[in-house]
User: Fold this.
Amino acid sequence: MWQRRRAREAHATGSLSATEWLDLVASYRARCAYCGSVAPLEMDHRIPLVRGGTNAIDNILPACGRCNRRKHTRTEDEFRAWLARQPHD
Assistant:
């Protein structure tokens, strides 16, 4: 519900069904699209709504809460480049 409300407020086009979301999560083997962790997943917009992204399934990735919060308003490409520059543990 929260995601739909955010999309409405941003006047984002597109929508996704619960089935589409579950299929997407299954295609990522229930892992975060960014770090690969097995954790509760959230919908993350490849292009954030605040930057003109849509709420369509092709703009959504499953992300763990940590990655989703760190990504903030970056695009998917910007976030992946930022992750690549971070020191590895």
In short: The chain is about 40% helix and 10% strand. The two ends are 36 Å apart (CA to CA).
